[in-house]
């Protein structure tokens, strides 16, 4: 978990891990230069649990760099992702571990999420099974926060690529790298995670992040040899940015 300005939600997120039906895990946290007391909250929580490794960046470095620091500490067969303002449903770890144990051909498994805000749940995603090449065209084919992967696969492709043009789309780029390297990814059909998608989350969808998504689409399509004409879809995030907020919320399925 890369944690940044999530002091008010971090305890709930961590509690959801200790509510898992599968309990043989360690938690690797890296605090990324927050302006609130996220680090103090994490430190207090870690003092009561002996399976937490707490790291801290000297300054804000971005999620790709931060997750690579976590990856350096990972010595287990599998590694799972999570964000500091979300909730893992109790069966999440058990479901993903059982899948990877019984399907050695897949390197990454994830599942659909319930999206929620202060008013409650407002949308539920779906999964489509094995990720195919064409699934990369419209956007990231795998939900990042609830994913679990074989640690060796992440490390084999060098983890997350670090660069200013990859911020907020480091996961999408990682999926391109893994797929291009021959690794298989899978999206479950059953919901395993709840993603907080409130006003703060919406405010992070900046013009810069839209440009970065367009850039990753452009280079990613080439990485996995998608047809040349699919390049037109790299314009999608740029066009979305100019949608009125009310229309975006309607299309996104958000409560009004």
How would you characterize this protein structure?
This protein has helices at 10-18, 38-46, 63-73, 92-102, 151-156, 170-180, 199-203, 207-223, 236-241, 245-252; strands spanning 2-3, 27-31, 52-56, 78-80, 87-88, 108-110, 113-117, 120-124, 129-130, 148-150, 185-187, 193-196. It has a five-stranded mixed β-sheet with strand order 4-10-6-11-9, with helices on both faces. Strands 5-12-7-8 form a four-stranded mixed β-sheet. A three-stranded parallel β-sheet has the order 1-2-3, with helices on both faces. The longest helix has 17 residues, at 207-223. It has 256 residues and is of the alpha/beta class. The protein has a domain at 75-252: Spore Coat Polysaccharide Biosynthesis Protein SpsA, Chain A, CATH 3.90.550.10. A hairpin with a 2-residue loop joins strand 7 (113-117) and strand 8 (120-124). Helix 6 packs parallel to helix 8 (207-223).
């Amino acid at each position: 978990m890369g944690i940044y300005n999530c002091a008010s939600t971090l305890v709930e997120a961590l509690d959801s891990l200790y509510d898992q039906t599968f309990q043989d895990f360690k938690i690797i946290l890296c605090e990324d230069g927050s302006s609130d007391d996220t680090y103090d909250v994490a430190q207090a929580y870690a003092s009561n649990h002996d399976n937490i490794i707490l790291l801290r960046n000297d300054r804000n470095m971005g999620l790709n760099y931060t997750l690579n620091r976590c990856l350096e500490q990972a010595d287990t067969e599998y590694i799972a992702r999570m964000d500091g303002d979300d909730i893992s449903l109790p069966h999440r770890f058990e479901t993903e571990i059982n899948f990877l144990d019984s399907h050695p051909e897949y390197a990454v498994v994830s599942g659909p999420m319930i999206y929620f805000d202060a008013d409650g749940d407002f949308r539920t995603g779906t999964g489509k099974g094995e990720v195919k090449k064409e699934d990369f065209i419209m956007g990231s084919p795998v939900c990042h926060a609830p994913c679990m992967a074989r640690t060796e696969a992440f490390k084999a492709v060098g983890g997350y690529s670090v660069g200013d043009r990859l911020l907020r789309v480091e996961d999408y780029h990682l999926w391109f790298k893994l797929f291009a390297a021959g690794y298989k990814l899978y999206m479950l059909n059953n919901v395993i995670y709840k993603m907080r998608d409130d006003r703060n989350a919406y405010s992070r969808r900046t013009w810069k992040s839209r440009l970065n998504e367009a850039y990753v689409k452009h280079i990613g399509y080439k990485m996995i040899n998608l047809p040349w004409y699919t390049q037109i879809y790299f314009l999608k995030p740029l066009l979305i940015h100019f949608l009125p907020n009310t229309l975006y919320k309607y299309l996104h399925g958000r409560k009004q």
